[in-house]
Amino acid sequence: MSTRTLVVVGHGMVGHRLVEALRAKDVDDQWRIVVFGEEARPAYDRVALSSYVDTWRAEDLELGPLEGADLRLGDAVVSVDRDRRVVTSASGAEVSYDALVLATGSVPFVPPVPGRDLPGCHVYRTIEDLDAIKATVDRSTRRIGRHSGMVLGGGLLGLEAANALRGMGVSPHVVELAPRLMPIQVDEGGAGLLKRLVEKLDLTVHTGTSASSIELDGDRLIAKLTNGLELDLDVVVFSAGIRPRTDLDLGLPLGPRGGYLVDDACRTSDPNVYAIGECASIEGTVYGLVAPGYSMAEVVADQLCGAASVFPGADTSTKLKLLGVDVASFGDAHATTEGALEVVVNNAVAGTYSKLVVSDDAKTLLGGILVGDASQYAMLRPLVGKDVPAGLLEPGGSAELSLPPDAQVCSCHAVTKQTITDAICAGVCTDVPTIKACTKAGTGCGSCVPMLKQLLTECGVEQSKALCEHFDHSRAELFEIVRATRITSFTELVGKHGRGRGCDICKPAVASILASLGNGHVLGGEQATLQDTNDRFLANMQRNGTYSVVPRIPGGEITPQKLIVIGEVARDFGLYTKITGGQRIDLFGATVDQLPEIWRRLVDAGFESGHAYGKALRTVKSCVGTTWCRYGVQDSVGLAIELELRYRGLRSPHKLKSAVSGCARECAEARGKDFGIIATENGWNLYVGGNGGFTPRHADLLVSDVDTESLIKYIDRFLMFYIRTADRLQRTSAWLEGLDGGLEHLREVIVDDSLGICADLEAAMAAHVEDYADEWRGVLEDPEKLARFQSFVNAPGTPDPTISFREERGQRVPVLLGIPEVAQ
Amino acid sequence: MTPVCELSALRPEQGVAALLPDGSQVAVFLTFDGSVHALDNIDPFSGAAVLARGIVGDRGGRPVVVSPVYKQAFDLTTGACLDSPDHSVAVHPVRVRDGVVELT
User: Fold this and answer.
1) Phi and psi dihedrals of A775, rounded to 5?
2) CB–CB of A714/A686 below 8 Å?
3) If you average pLDDT over residues A48-65, what whole number do you get?
4) What is the distance between the alpha carbons of residues A19 and A236, in angstroms, rounded to a whole number?
5) Measured between CB atoms, which of A469, A500, A533 is closest to B68?
6) For chain A, is the Cβ count within 10 Å smaller at the N or the C terminus?
7) Is residue A400's pLDDT more than 50?
8) Nearest to B5 by CA among A541, A794, A681
């Protein structure tokens, strides 16, 4: 029973984390939590703010529901009576507290440039700011060429803002007072390379200067820089840092640079009042990063539960991809430690820069900077303060090394190597997705995922990639072997590259590979013996050994005449009928020998296999789209049918589901699919790697606002890349989770063609589309295949005596079988 | 002596079911090396008469059929379930005479 009340002032990322942490730690439910948020929308991921420009969907940034707290949105706290321990909100609500946490965040700092309040000048902090920037850009009168914008501030946030402007079709000028970009994180050498790389991306960088004035010229903005340049602009964005927000005056002391002054337990001079995040000055320092804010939230949650906990000091390490350029900075990046030595490798040709900072005796790693290629970050950051591994400082030396157990592998969630290896050794975690699920490591920025894989290897549980006892190869390797050698039978493959006669693991996997590469009918010749339960009879086996039948209904669109045929077939064969989740109709209770008769009727009426039995494309679900819907912006049904007909019959490592929604309301639930498409005003957004089922996952945005032709090109590539590289029975969601480099890498391969394989992937899909033939028609036209559909070899046509039905709600359902003595 | 079918009706590693005079069913298999095996067709885990429809292969060199329902492997020569020592299916002695498969 809650006996005490915590009031949280401010509902941002850090306030959100505090509630989550306290709910997790307060096992006795001592605390009632009341959260006041000034904004009308719940806390969202401000770190990912620039991605809002991809979709303009605020819900994509949501942090997830806040459970176990009384959340009062759109109601700011206006005063605090610390004597009575009562807060008063703008709406007049009064709440008494036992503990008060200030999490009011920060406000953007706008330098006092004349003209800074002109229309078209914005700050970059909230979703509303981005909406306002977009409105300015949309209103702009420039009709020729690209819009032009200025971002004042060339730090991390400034480059993020520049990226957001690019996403709106604006060419940004980035103006930074310091002599280099990202002066806090990166040194001169790294910043030089960074500038060169981002200037290839339509950015213009002006360093060592600032704006002296901004003036209105008609409806244009003219910015004058202190170096004499004049910029003709559509929009100006200030991104020159933040200031702690302390306008709620509690009469508490503030830090030297603003912020509520707190001790290392995040406590103000009033023992009942804490401050966390960007509004806190923790022992005099204000942190503008989310990770230290999260640490403070954890510290306060501990305190509230009676645990002595202090702020461990901030890890201000950063790794990010800015405008497609890797930038990482960790530890003592600027070598401020006395006697620190630097080892710099600046490869202007490859476009990479790395600097390692070590102690004066070269024994301890102190920090470093990586630009262009930050792949070593996951290994190096946890080694800060620890021994420099042998070979690291040699030319071309890389880290073939082992982290000490207390090294923090995931700094977003403060997970140490020990925690992860314990979970692996206990058998709880066997791969990256399970490590993510049980330790939270790798679920923040994702930069430590390569390290997680290495830890699996270190613990000796890196699964043998061998598919089964008959092959030492992984599925992806077998795929490449079959593709390169053009082997067309299991017997030849197992003879040359494996051993034995195969099993229920490798045979269906090889059958799928053969089918993906186009080797005729899936029941042709030896292939029939490779197929798993359902593929063997092109229907779904149910618990009593009967089958269910699902004809394809592309996009869920069906004529009354075809509905009648399905009804008649079901009636004539006594089949139980049910509408599926994929907008089609499932007919249950068919025996093996009935399947051809049922399908003859269906094929004659124009139906074809729905592949509900196969590891193949199932359905492309759709909403009704522009044809009928008042809100639709594209023809979702038309596209769904086109996609379903294009990819029907495509065999893959696991089943494939898809959906097309005609507008952002997303009625087709496309983001729960392996590939989902959502219509926009300008075209289509493609999402990949979604899943419902056991481990739900929202699909990630791969490309946005593309036309139908480009969309299909990207889906072709995505599906073929997945088919070639995934493990057996690995859905796209798990495949994407485990993919080195994740979504960013996928985008490089699929969109930028970084591996140079896109033409090949497209050709493979074109071959599939060309070769498609209905599998059930193929059976009906081939007496040899038809002969397999019999109940008894010595008594064709005799019904299986073990199968019987009863009636339930007007339909036939199976009589449950006695187990196991039925045989006697 | 119960004739089941012609040997030519069997395809390697693709089982068939046969109905016996007493109403019970056997699953008959021709393995890749040319030998013929017969087991009870009823899968003891599901009660469904489906073993003939399972994938035929080997486990550690022993010829097996894998139940299409819950995927347990059964040794074609002994009927033992290799995934659960408490389960097995009956093995029927079988021979091929004059091109006809017979249960003996």
Assistant:
1) -65, -35
2) yes
3) 84
4) 36
5) A533
6) N
7) no
8) A794
**Chain B residues touching residue A792 (CB < 8 angstroms):** 16-19, 25
Instruction: Copy the structure tokens of residue A708.
Output: 């139908």
Partner-chain contact B11 A528, CB within 8 Å: yes
pLDDT tens string, chain B, 104 residues long: the values are 899 999 999 999 999 999 999 999 999 999 999 999 999 999 999 999 999 999 999 999 999 999 999 999 999 999 999 988 889 999 999 999 999 999 98
Q: Which residues of B touch A469 (CB under 8 A)?
A: 59-60
What residues in A contact B58, CB-CB < 8 Å? 470, 500-503
Q: Is A537 on the interface with B (CB under 8 A)?
A: yes
Give how far the C-alpha of residue A414 lies from the chain's centroid of Cα atoms, to the nearest Å: 20
Q: Is the pLDDT of residue A72 over 50?
A: yes
> Which 3 state secondary structure label does DSSP give A139?
helix
Cβ contact B9–A793 (<8 Å): yes
Q: Domains (ranges, CATH) in chain A?
A: 4-107+244-304 (3.50.50.60), 121-240 (3.50.50.60), 475-531 (no CATH), 540-771 (3.30.413.10)
**Contact residues on chain B for A543, CB-CB shorter than 8 A:** 46, 48, 69
Q: Which long-range contacts (CB under 8 A, 24 or more apart) does A336-345 make?
A: A337/A366, A340/A366, A343/A393, A344/A189, A345/A395
Closest-CA distance, B10 to chain A, in angstroms, reads 9
Residue spans of alpha helices (H) in A397-467: 417-425, 432-439, 449-458
CB contact under 8 A, A802 and B49: yes
Strands (E), A596-691: 617-622, 656-661, 675-680, 683-688
CATH number at residue B13: 2.102.10.10
Place of tokens 């075209």: A683
Distance (Å) from the C-alpha of residue A465 to the closest C-alpha of chain B? 18
Which chain A residues are within 8 Å of B36, Cβ to Cβ? none
Chain A closest-CA separation from residue B55 CA (Å): 6
Q: How far apart are CA B7 and CA B26, in angstroms?
A: 15
Q: Are A297 and A274 in contact (CB under 8 A)?
A: no
Locate A432 and state its tokens: 């990256």
Distance CA A647, CA A645 (A): 6
pLDDT at A141: 61
Measure A530 CA to nearest chain B CA, in Å.
7
Rounded Cα distance between A806 and A788, Å, is 28
* Cβ atoms of residues A18 and A7 within 8 Å: no
d(CA A193, CA A371): 7
Residue pair A546/A552 in contact by the 8 Å Cβ criterion: no
Average pLDDT of chain A, as a whole number: 90
| The two three-digit tokens of residue B57, written as one number | 């292969």
Contact in structure between A764 and A652 (CB atoms under 8 Å) = no
- pLDDT tops 90 at residue A545: yes
Give pLDDT, residue A66.
Answer: 83
Distance, CA of A814 to chain centre: 42
Closest-CA distance of chain A to residue B91, Å = 13
B40: which chain A residues are within 8 Å (Cβ-Cβ)? 823
Give me the domain span that covers residue B76: 2-103
Whether the ω angle into residue A172 lies within 30 degrees of 0, i.e. cis, is no
Task: Note whether ipTM > 0.90 here.
Answer: yes
Q: Name the amino acid, one letter, at A373.
A: D
End-to-end CA distance of chain B: 5
Helix (H, G, I), strand (E, B) or coil at A328: strand
On whether any CB of chain B is under 8 Å from the CB of A489, the answer is no
CA distances (Å), origin A479, targets A119, A417, A476, A564, B19 = 59, 35, 5, 43, 40
In angstroms, the CA A206 to CA A186 distance is 16
> What's the total number of domains in chain B?
1
d(CA A478, CA A497): 9
